[in-house]
Specification:
The complex is a heterotetramer, with 2 copies of chain A and 2 copies of chain B. By secondary structure, chain A is α+β, with helices and mostly antiparallel strands. Chain A contains 3 helices and 11 strands. The two termini of chain A are about 30 Å apart. By secondary structure, chain B is an alpha+beta fold. Helices cover about 20% and strands about 30% of the residues of chain B. Classes of the chains: A alpha+beta, B alpha+beta. Chains C and D meet through strand 6, helix 2, helix 3 and strand 10 of C and helix 1 and strand 4 of D.
């Protein structure tokens, strides 16, 4: 895990790792004794990708994720702080994988623990949307006949 | 800053911008009074392949506005819209 | 897994088990090649419970879940069918644990895979709410000095 | 059904109702023309501890309305509001 970085306060965490991500362990690490549920978003390497321009479906061989690591961890912690201000939630864990990912492997896991389900769902949805908008991580799709750095929506 | 002042900047490239610049990190020495926008224009002149990309700039690990002034020792990251997740 | 029951069609599944539930494997089993994300709700045995009548916080020693098993599986499949009619989602997996659960162990995992995140969040939230309302499963909280079958809200 | 008709019913109890009835399963022989509501009343008379519980009834693994008629061979589940999750 050469690129792994961890900073921890309370039960929140935001990490980058080059190793496989286990969803269970991420979901468990945010659990305080007074909460009964976690909501977890996990993204994974898709085998089929739709070309945004042509609409054509391409078969992806594998993905490569790259990050501006110290800034990415900072930005993930900003999302944690902002989410905790906006939603009634207890703890948040975010782990994003970097490097080469085979199809089907988990690229990102966001787990939110909360006393009540509703804010946990809302916060988790908000965090993945913002992560895709603000956290400096880039995805390269590698095909049999080429590769492309995916450009984000904004 | 005076006319003779110089700034040393470190420029980092990622993903598509690293491919376009053919480099992941460069050191730059430049005159004072440089904005983010101006630096982006200078870099695009130096590395024409960057002109095909919509660039975002971070200064010292924070997103920067186009009008922000740069300072000696700043660490500049040049990248495209993020696509993690 | 004496009480385990499985019926499968497409990548959907609804199961009861007396063994530990691994969140990762549930989340993975609903993944079709065209989807990039799953949303997972996991509920787990809470260590502290608020008494609904008195507001007093009690320390729970362990939980026991019991189900009317064939009807519970049927009702879970009904939720799967209804969710797939209402939301643009690909596959749903539901696993509920029965028997004795130690504090912190997972009682239920609901994973929803979808081409887009928004309906996955909405469907997962809808399913856990309906599951708590309609699926014939009951929870017994066991304390140091007694035990109580929890009665649902409706 | 005629006056002499009888129905054989299987009654299942779960959780709190099993504790109240002191049993998890009983067989019941009864006259014809019995509704869900009437059965619930009869069971509460037989097992007074059930009267403290708000009962839900399923017939043959489906939730049943109070006015539904029962048939010979029906499998009845008697339980309280569910609390899974």
């Amino acid at each position: 895990m050469a690129f792994a970085q961890t900073t921890e306060h309370s039960l929140d965490f935001a990490e980058l790792t080059t190793g496989p991500i286990d969803i269970t362990s991420v979901a468990r690490r945010v659990v305080p004794p007074t909460c009964g549920a976690t909501v977890t978003l996990d993204g994974y390497a898709r085998g089929l990708t739709k070309d945004k321009a042509t609409g054509e479906i391409r078969k992806t061989d594998h993905l490569v994720y790259e990050a501006y690591e110290p800034m990415a961890v900072k930005e993930m912690y900003k999302l944690i702080e902002q989410a905790k201000q906006q939603f009634e939630i207890a703890n948040i864990g975010i782990v994003h994988r970097l490097g080469k990912l085979e199809i089907g492997e988990t690229s990102v896991v966001i787990s939110v623990a909360a006393p009540h389900r509703k804010p946990a769902f809302a916060a988790c949805e908000w965090i993945i949307r913002e992560l895709k908008r603000t956290v400096p991580i880039w995805k390269k799709e590698v095909y049999a006949d080429g590769e492309v750095w995916v450009e984000g929506a904004e | 800053m005076g006319l003779l002042s110089v700034m040393n900047l470190k420029i980092l490239f990622f993903g598509a911008t690293a491919d376009a610049a053919g480099s992941r990190e460069i050191e730059l020495q430049t005159g004072g009074n440089l904005t983010v926008e101006r630096l982006a224009r200078d870099l695009t002149r130096e590395y024409p392949a960057l002109s095909k990309l919509k660039l975002l700039i971070a200064v010292n690990e924070e997103y920067a506005e186009a009008e922000s002034d740069l300072s000696d020792g700043d660490k500049i990251a040049v990248f495209t819209a993020v696509s993690g997740g």
